[in-house]
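Narrative of activities, Objective 1.

The group set out to show that a structural description can be obtained from nothing but a protein's sequence at a throughput compatible with the screening campaign. Below is one input-output pair from the validation batch, recorded exactly as produced.
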Amino acid sequence: MEFGIFSNGFRAATSASLSYDEDIHEIVLADQLGFRDAFISEHHGEMPYVGRVDTIPAPDMLMCKAAALTSRIRMGSAVKLIHLQHPIDVAVQAAVADHLLGRGRYIFGFGTGFASPLFSQERGLEFEGRHARLLESLEAVLKCWSSTEPFDLDGTYWRGKGLIALPKPFEPGGPAMATATDSEAMIRIAAERGYTLLAAHVDTPARIRARSAKYMHYAAQAGRPASVENITAARLVYLADSRQQALDDLRPAITFEVSVQAERGFLGHMKRTFGIDVPNDERALDALVGTGTYILGDADEVTQQLERFHDESGGFGTLLIVAGKSWATREKRERSMRMFMSDVAPRLRRLGMAAAA
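Output recorded for this entry:
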């Protein structure tokens, strides 16, 4: 089993530059501690965020700065909303990031993202067509990377004349690919091509297991190894000396985040997904811990919870722990990451090896 961080940027508003510095600090620390991957959310502006939350809508730019401060960690978007931009712009920006990161460190993570009509409507696009638009965009991006001659786009959603996309990706075959999706068509494409399948940190184990089963079915049909190695799962993980200390450390920031997310329909999502009512007050953290999406406590307790999550979800090749939050203090967030890699990760690696066998 490999490990990474999911930089799900959501910090109380100060200035975006300070929030980005905190995100990069965590990526640099993850690189030093031996995390293999860092996935960065693409969060666009919404009214509930104004004056309250700093987010990053252009994760490739943050990756390029982080690349200069790290040596090994791979980075990708989770996820790049390729249904919102013309494919030639997506292809060129990704290829530039691929070169600036270099040595196979860039991952092209893509998807449709949070199901809000706002992002499509802002750009004069149809929300209902986002999945079909994404599929068409993906094929156009791949052609931009591979074609050495100008070509035309004459699709249902994207058009253009004489496209010449430069630079080409760092490696001739293009960067590693990853997607987060519930679309049957996209799961099939990902499985047939060997793309990594990303699961959100608020996915239930049952949904992860069902999606993984589809992925492995289509991979086997395509003659690819039917393994959980290409499945990546995520959880909000925080370690302290005790469960109570962890609850005390996280409660103020979680209470604030839930108050903002409630305006985006988050509480309704949790009700539909987990069948629980998350109160919009200081009790929210206790309800979220009850869903299993927040895993906290000392090293033994966290390890046991993650082992159970691994079993219930059918296994996965990579676990991402959520970062990019204003939990407690920088020092306590650092300590949690260090404790995870020293006291929890070695035990989970053995679990992953047993599952693979």
